[in-house]
Write a structure and sequence with these properties.
The chain has 385 residues and is of the alpha/beta class. 31% of the residues lie in helices and 25% in strands. The protein contains eleven helices and 19 strands. The protein has a nine-stranded mixed β-sheet, sandwiched between helices. The termini are far apart.
């Protein structure tokens, strides 16, 4: 049985705790240790864990020291800017690592993680959950086989409304950096990172890698009182000359669930998060497969991770797959300034700040395959190239 320690038990960590509880009931894992730096704020969670024999620690170093040589895996659902240092510390202490997405804020940190992994001989899995779904692997296979013709372009789009509480939930939310440590928290790097990473993975030339990016045109907008952007339109170029567009915002009133449209010479794929994936074949016929509901992706991902520990070639995001996403985030942040949206096009309420008319601009940009400025948004400026 695989023994696991988790660094954090509140916020997004709750998703991992639910998945691990299900796997515990199946006799596959045992959660034995947890770090709860805010134990006084979550007494019910801590009490439940203690009742199940989980040892609680006030800091990460204490857990690693106490369990060195007696623990198999460390799970890190922790802030972005801590991913690299905590992953490397776990590897150096002799533990496999399951680290949440994004893998890190910078490519240099990703390279340091890979180097530490190679020195240790241990496995690092990254929490890009869609990679482990059989439907995602089928799309990858079809693209590699050329079953839909040559890949032409990919477009990702989503409007996920998030209010002021979302940006106040932690000291790093919406931040570019904390002290001298890069964070780059944004829709691209965090909430909608799964879909950007999946597109980069599908565009990769071999089964185990994502594509290589060669350039970007991007528009970054800030409607909320944060350091970084909450709205983005970007066009990434790949080493195989296939553009990948990314349209997203949290400063919206209406939701548009995440979609990925993969356009090929003879067919296409439409991935509709939490609903279904539609494959249109060269003869015009279609295959529609349901996708798991949001919240049901974690267990398949954890199963794939456990299989990898047993030496099986299960589909799981690795640092090599996740690195392109980190590169995309860093490239955008270092090459494009964040523009503050003019106050006269904002709607301010007690719980949220939104851009007026954003939904119609998004819909035009999606249907035309263009950026927000190219779709006629009055508040948008052309992307620097």
């Amino acid at each position: 049985m695989v023994t696991i320690g988790i660094a954090g038990v509140s916020g997004y960590a709750q998703n991992h705790l639910r998945a691990l509880r299900e796997l515990e009931q199946q006799g596959l894992v045992r959660l034995v240790a947890a770090v709860a730096i805010n134990a006084a704020e979550i007494p019910e969670t801590v009490a439940d864990l203690e009742s199940r024999g989980v040892e609680i620690y006030g800091n990460y170093t204490a857990m690693l020291s106490a369990w060195q040589g007696r623990l198999d895996v460390v799970c890190l659902p922790t802030p972005i800017h801590l991913h690299a240092s905590m992953t490397i510390a776990a590897l150096e202490a002799g533990f496999h690592v399951f680290v949440e997405k994004p893998l890190s804020a910078t490519v240099a940190e990703v390279e340091a993680i890979i180097a530490a992994r190679e020195r240790s001989g241990l496995f690092v899995g990254v929490g890009f959950q869609d990679i482990s779904l059989p439907q995602a692997q089928e799309v990858k296979r079809l693209l590699l086989e050329g079953a839909l013709g040559d890949l032409r372009e990919i477009q990702i789009g989503a409007l996920w409304p998030r209010g002021l509480a979302y940006f106040a939930r932690s000291g790093w939310a919406g931040r570019i950096a904390v002290g001298d440590q890069a964070v780059y928290d944004s829709p691209l790097s965090n909430a909608l990172a799964h879909f950007a990473n999946l597109a980069f993975y599908w565009a990769g030339a071999t089964p185990q890698v994502s594509c290589q990016l060669t350039g970007v045109e991007a528009e970054l907008y800030r409607a909320n009182p944060i350091e970084n952007f909450d709205t983005i339109a970007a066009r990434f170029m790949t080493d195989r000359s296939q553009p990948i567009r990314f349209l997203a915002s949290h400063a919206c009133t209406e939701e548009r669930e995440a979609r990925i449209l993969v356009s090929c010479a003879a067919g296409n794929v439409l991935w509709h998060n939490g609903q279904d994936v539609t494959i249109t074949w060269p003869d015009g016929s279609q295959k529609v497969e349901p996708l798991p509901r949001p919240g049901r992706y974690m267990v398949p991902m954890w199963r794939a991770f456990l299989d990898r520990l047993q030496g099986h070639d299960a589909p799981m995001a690795t640092p090599e797959i996740a690195c392109t996403h980190t590169y995309a985030v860093e490239m955008v942040q270092r090459s494009v300034p964040v523009q503050t949206v003019a106050a006269d096009v904002l709607r301010e309420r007690a719980e949220a700040i939104t851009i007026m008319g954003l939904e119609s601009v998004f819909d035009r940009a999606w249907s035309r395959g263009v950026l927000f400025s190219e779709a006629g948004a009055s508040w948008a400026a052309p992307a620097p190239s």
